[in-house]
Amino acid sequence: MARYVAAVMVPGLALLVREVQRAWGTAPHWAWAELVVFAAFVVLGEFRPIRIARRDEQEEILTSTTFTFAILLSSGLAAAVIVRALVSALPAILRRKPWWKAGFNVAQYALALGAAGSVLRLLSTVPRQGPAHFLTSDMPAIMVAALVYFLVNNGLAGTALALAQRAAVGAYLRHDLVFQGTTAGVLLTLAPIVVVCSERSLWMVPLFALPMAAVYTSASIALEKHQALHDALTDLPNRRLFRDRVNQAVVNARRANRPVAVMIIDLDRFKEVNDTLGHHIGDILLQLVATRLQSTLREGDTIARLGGDEFAVLLPMVSGAVAAAGVAEKLVQALEAPFTIRSWAFDIDASIGIAVSPEHGDTVDTLMQRADVAMYLAKENRTGLELYSAERDRHSPRRLALLSDLRRALDDDTLRLHYQPKADMRTGGIRGVEALLRWTHTEHGPIPPDEFIPLAEHTGLIRPLTLYVLDQALAQCRIWNDTGVPIGVAVNLSVRNLYDPSFADEVAALLDRHGVPAGRLELEITESVIMADPMRAMAVLARLSDLGVGLSLDDFGVGYSSLAYLKRLPVTEIKIDKSFVMNISNDESDAMIVRSTIGLARSLGMRVVAEGVESEETWARLVSLGCDIAQGYYLCRPKPAEEITPWLAAAKLAVEPMVIVPAEAGMRPSVEEVCRRLDASGLFSITDSLSESLAD
């Protein structure tokens, strides 16, 4: 870039110096009044460009081009170069631009005018001495000079911009060449008309201000309309224009019986850029993202910025959901390459939600709302992109109806708890039960917990629902203890519970109300609940632990745990997810994960529960690995209280305290080996080595 600037500046400034010397030495016979009027219009055109809106971009048209070329035709090359140099340097000085930018602009115009002047000298005698600066026979030469001026000026400036943006020079120059050439052609062909008018009467030249004012006014109105419909930062369509285009596309698609796709795009971790480096860098990054996304789409597609780091895409011509997903995949891939700003490289990912009409809706609001729902699913599941699915929509009519029915079921006390036993693997004695909430809908029948529990979690219903389960479970626990079945009960918690500072007090009140010792209650939390906000969750867990309530880490292994946090959590039990347990007899990788987890738990002084034990073979393998407790269909399926009570009464109870027994010699891996196995398995994201954690 520096070499190119120097290569333009040296000959351009040399030409300027030569023309200044020539004008100074020969005392040219310029028509000073005419030159001053033309120069005034050059200044006016330079400082007041006509801004117009084109597609999704803004363009500036400099009317100074007309009068600069008019000076070349009326007063010659020296006058044109000197006026153009002064007018180019003045804004740079006022705006305090770097000296080399001002020098480049001066040199660029000098070379373009020099090339046009050479054509005029070669093909004609323009400017002529006398009342007429040129004759009709000179027009071909003037047109060729105008063409050369455009090619040189546009080529020099375009090459500099391409090099600055690290773009291919040829492709950059060809981009929008028709518009640039047409605009420059109109401006340059006006120059001979201006000269002829000045020859007739210099007072006619200011009359050009009237049509120019009309052009300025109409352009300003168009620009205001453009700005009202476009994002100020990226110049992409804004939400208002996007909605209008979606509406039009849906209407046209309905007539043609073809699909339309709408996408919502949200950038992942963008807030970290603003928080760390400031909004200025964040704005630059948004502009780069917008450019890259736009370059990935077809000519007829629309990309808009809805606000913040959220974009939207309209595909008005798409064959269906599969094709729309293919375009979304290309958008995800387009963002994979790092973005470079100054000396920083940014890796930006995106979550994209897709909705297709008429399958997912046939109105603007419906398509955008459902694309937004799909986008949040993609963000939660870290899948990159998701197609809208009514079954997974927490806001679908069925889900909203279920939410209303769930509230009613809670008020009417029609929800039921089922209980599944947990057995000591060394003695076979029953150590406790897990309370599992069940809901049989009057119309839809049994509703799976993984459908109505997330629905409650995303509303305020999860708090009363959890307290209901605790109340029912503790009431049943008291009944069992009073009738000679002294076992504890486990209840699952939601992330909302651990973010509620009053939750520990509510648990304490329920324990006191039912007269159940805190040690009989165990609360199960998942890794994702803890890792979403570890410090906040640990504060509530610490209060629960202080009450004497047992804490169990459920579904261990399916999330992304930090061993440093795990060591500091007041949990006494780890439950290995059933996905690793069910195939332990046939899959050595699962066996390695279970063995390593048991070793980890031993190192941290925790007991291990295996979920999903469904066969005698699995039970035997877990016993050989030193697992403490089993839970699964092999032992007993979940049953309501009236059915599980006789089963418990007939079963052997393990009432003695659980003692953590180390695995057999040679079976227990070292701390370093546990870390190596877990890291190799991809099961955990280890932020601190376990040996360092245990040494703290």
Descriptive overview:
This protein is of the alpha/beta class. The protein is 57% helix and 15% strand. The protein contains 28 helices and 19 strands. The strands form 4 sheets. An 8-stranded mixed barrel has the order 10-11-13-14-15-16-17-18, surrounded by 4 helices. It has a 5-stranded mixed beta sheet with strand order 4-5-3-8-9, sandwiched between helices. α1 packs across α5 and α24 crosses α27. The chain is elongated and about 125 Å long.
Shape: elongated
Strand content: 15-25%
The value of Rg in angstroms is 38 Å
Mean pLDDT, as a whole number?
Answer: 82
Structural class: alpha/beta
Number of helical segments with 4 or more residues:
28
Key traits:
disordered C terminus, 28 helices, alpha/beta, eight-stranded mixed β-barrel, 696 residues, 19 strands, five-stranded mixed beta sheet, single chain, 57% helix
In short:
This protein is α/β, with parallel strands linked by helices. The protein is built from 28 helices and 19 strands. Helix 1 (2-26) crosses helix 4 (77-94), helix 2 runs parallel beside helix 4 and helix 17 (462-482) runs parallel beside helix 19.
SSE diagram, text form:
Blueprint lengths: L1 H25 L5 H16 L2 E5 L2 E5 L2 H12 L1 H18 L4 H25 L15 H26 L4 H6 L2 H24 L8 H20 L10 H18 L3 E9 L1 H8 L1 H18 L5 E6 L2 E6 L5 H14 L4 E3 L2 E3 L2 E9 L6 H18 L3 E3 L9 H16 L3 E9 L5 E12 L3 E3 L1 H9 L4 H21 L5 E5 L2 H4 L4 H12 L6 E6 H6 L1 H14 L2 E7 L6 H6 L4 E4 L1 H4 L6 H17 L2 E5 L4 H10 L3 E3 L7 E2 H10 L20 H11 L8 H6 L1
Parallel strand pairs: 8-9, 11-13, 13-14, 14-15, 15-16, 16-17, 17-18
Antiparallel strand pairs: 1-2, 3-5, 3-8, 4-5, 6-7, 10-11, 10-18, 10-19, 11-12
Helix pairs in contact: 1-4, 1-5, 2-3, 2-4, 3-4, 3-8, 4-5, 5-6, 6-8, 11-12, 17-19, 19-21, 24-27
